[in-house]
Amino acid sequence: MSRPQDRTGRATVPAPRSSAPRPEPVPERIASPGRIVAYLLLTVLGAVVGLAGCLVQPMWFPGGLALALGGAFALFYGGRTLTRTKLGATLPAVGWFVMLLAANSPRPEGDFLITGSFGTYVFLLGGLALAVICATMPSAEALRAVRESAQQRQQT
């Protein structure tokens, strides 16, 4: 039995045929409308938490700083958990950081909302570190897959 050949003389195997209709391509949606609203709310909430942190951390220095960083971490981690995406932690951090930049810009009177003190730098750098940690941490599904593969390796 001879097989069909291509131009180079190699035998070709025809693809299997199916009578089923070809599936229509599914249009890819970036995000649902509810998730987009959640992203917008998290960004605005990040700006609010940033402003509150600017006001609280210098008032009660050690405790206010811990409270401001704890609130920022709760928002970043909560956004990550709520949306189950890295963008859920990134957008509140962007809102938080934009508010800190606005608070650090000089006003026409020459005043600043944020002063250049030790606590302010810890608040700024610590909040950025917390945002990066929350945005880059692995998802629960990824951790579960790693755990299951480790258990399977132990059993064999």
Automatic annotation (TrEMBL):
Keywords, in A-Z order: Membrane, Transmembrane, Transmembrane helix
Region named Disordered: 1-28
InterPro entries given in the database record: DUF6113
Top-level taxonomic group: Bacteria
Protein name: DUF6113 family protein
TM region positions: 36-53, 59-77, 89-106, 118-137
